[in-house]
Amino acid sequence: MRESGEMYLETILVLGKEKNIVRATDIASRLGYSKASVSRAVGKLCSEGYIVVGGNGYIAFTEQGRSIAEKIYERHQVLSRILTSLGVEQRCAVDDACRIEHVISDEAFQAIKHHLETFGPDQ
Fold it and tell me: How buried is residue 90: exposed, middle or buried, by Cβ count under 10 Å (0-12/13-18/19+)?
């Protein structure tokens, strides 16, 4: 999956945590994208089997889509935490974590996560 697809899935997950119903207009508003761009992306995510859109326009994850969204969201949270613990300003840490979360290997991420769980963010 490409970075843009992962970003959409993570956004759907976050919006779903904030409110139970997610629609394409909510995604467009959150990301600052045009409704047409979001509509194309939602259609692609549907055709690839990551989400489904009900007749009411509500977006729901497939099992595979939720799994990817949760993986990316976890990476974002952990990487933001480690960067802020290193002294990076919060906004910069969040922005950088957003870029890193899509390219870091599973092995490297698991090592960072294990380090945090074992030693805490300040070690």
Answer: exposed
